[in-house]
Amino acid sequence: MDTGHMDAGHMGMGDIERIDLGEVPYEEAVERMTRWVGQRRAGEIPDRLALLTHPPVITYSARTPPAELPTDSPIPLIPVDRGGQATYHGPGQLIGHLVLNLRERGPGDIVRQVENALIDACTTLGFETLRRDTPPGAQSLVGVWTPAGEKLASIGMLPHSRLRSSGRGPHRGGVTSHGFALNITSDLAEFTRFTACGLPGVTMTSLAELAAFQGRLAPSEAEVRDAVAKAVGAA
């Protein structure tokens, strides 16, 4: 288990344009990010962080075993062409989409940087969290966790990054688009209706639940957005 931060601090970023959106359907958001990736590759826009929410949806990849999906959920199931397993998005969850030119930013593990930025944001909000290393051959533990082993945030590459890949690696033209989902006041019961992130037995949590354990109110969505944006370098 590794709780250390990147030596660059706050993802080594800065100069990221912050865009605040409201509720955006999942597929519409992916289409928008696909367009932004093309514009970023062409030098028409700067690096961007979009903060938004999604209506209830469960996304899953071709790698997701059917047994890990819900059988009677009223929530739409959307197959997506990305890695990873099934995950839930819905009200009370902050979604972040990053569009970055990695060639301009230099080498670095973007996923590790996002993990550490979210940990920084949680620290600012008064919550202790950490990242976990994935043992060889095990299901990915990428994300943000509590010391008690509950998962608070998920991180992954957006589908269009894989669909539009060519040459070496998934970042054609040096531009990548990653997303993260941080539970604020999410309905955690929805995560129990399927195997979230391919991790049976793992409990999902939220900032509201953690705050209740501390005997205080949960931070507002606006406070979480500001903390995340500052940690990412898009304040």
Automatic annotation (TrEMBL):
It catalyses: octanoyl-[ACP] + L-lysyl-[protein] = N(6)-octanoyl-L-lysyl-[protein] + holo-[ACP] + H(+). It comes from Streptomyces prunicolor. Residues 43-235 form the BPL/LPL catalytic domain. It is an enzyme of class 2 (transferase). Keywords: Acyltransferase, Transferase. Pfam families: LplA-B_cat. InterPro entries: aa-tRNA-synth_II/BPL/LPL (IPR045864), BPL_LPL_catalytic (IPR004143), Octanoyltransferase (IPR000544). Gene3D superfamilies: Bira Bifunctional Protein, Domain 2 (3.30.930.10). This is Octanoyltransferase. Catalyzes the transfer of endogenously produced octanoic acid from octanoyl-acyl-carrier-protein onto the lipoyl domains of lipoate-dependent enzymes. Lipoyl-ACP can also act as a substrate although octanoyl-ACP is likely to be the physiological substrate. Its EC number is 2.3.1.181. The gene is lipB.
